[in-house]
Write a structure and sequence with these properties.
3 helices; alpha+beta; 26% strand; five-stranded mixed sheet; 170 residues; Immunoglobulin-like; four-stranded mixed sheet
């Protein structure tokens, strides 16, 4: 009889803990940027991604050395090289527009743009203002839910275990 109370409570706890950090469940994509055949352009020159996605700068055996450096310092593939395999993941809260250059060839127009669109916890795109307001509100603490679940189970389970053994009131 008391198990009828414990089952819905246990189910509720499982459902709550399954939604603790839905941001971690976002689909992560990877976009690859290379150097085109002219050797002085990124290909593609502009990409649009979502928060949580990764941009990979990849080239091998180029005639001239290249790198990819974002103007604000958020990413830097390192010293110019003929062979580069560098990845950067744009986490939550990094939405915006990022311009980057190949340092040795910036004057020749070797520049690129990465547009990072904001996403909310359900994976839908949102505006920057919505993201700023909701990031802290949508995340529950795992220790808090664990304590809540433990307390609830501790108060219910001892009573149920007594009923299952056939203890009488005599």
């Amino acid at each position: 009889m008391k198990f009828g109370i414990a089952a819905p409570l246990l189910l509720s706890i499982i459902l709550l803990t399954g939604s603790i950090d839905t941001a971690a469940d976002l689909q992560q994509e990877e976009v690859t940027i290379t150097v085109d055949s002219t050797n002085f352009r990124f290909s593609p020159p502009s990409v649009t991604i979502s928060e949580g996605d990764t941009v990979r700068f990849l080239w091998n055996g180029e005639l001239l050395p290249h790198n990819a450096v974002e103007g604000g310092g958020i990413f830097d593939s390192g010293e110019p090289s003929r062979n580069v395999d560098y990845s950067f993941t744009f986490g939550l809260g990094t939405n915006g527009t990022y311009e980057y250059v190949c340092e040795p060839h910036e004057d020749m127009g070797m520049v690129g743009t990465i547009i990072v669109e904001a996403v909310n916890a359900t994976g839908n795109e949102t505006t920057e203002e919505e993201t700023d307001e909701t990031i802290d509100e949508n995340t529950l603490s795992a220790p808090f839910l664990t304590i809540l679940a433990s307390t609830a189970m501790a108060t219910i389970l001892p009573r149920n275990s007594q009923l299952g053994r056939g203890v009488s009131d005599e």
